[in-house]
TrEMBL record:
Transport keyword on record: no
UniProt name for this protein: Succinate dehydrogenase cytochrome b556 subunit
Annotated GO MF terms: electron transfer activity; metal ion binding
Protein residues bound to heme: 83
Co-factor requirement: heme
Amino acid sequence: MTNVTQNRPLSPHLSIYKQIPTMVMSILHRLTGMALYAGTILVAWWLIAAASGPEYFDWVNGIFGSLLGRLVLFGYTWALVHHLLGGIRHFIWDTGHGFDPQTSTKMAWATITGSVILTVLIWIAGYATRF
């Protein structure tokens, strides 16, 4: 009996390919989609705490108001904005536009740059409206 696995070609792995912006954005789009599931659980926890009474709500707000909590919420905001912009990028591709390498690379950089800028602006607006 021969060993058939030795004669089979190996599939290339991510470490073999040169990482280009569109590939990185594709991976980030999937990762932010998964992160949104965890963030949505946090939003649901916050809403349940609000419905449970002032003591429990204050406790949950204290967690979200801590430095670690704010970092997690900032990351959730970035994941939400990045995933939204990635979805818009995919929608543009669905219309048949933006497939040439220069345009797709520019759109990838615009997605990451736009998501960071919009996230910071959202947080600035949030802090500006606090009393």
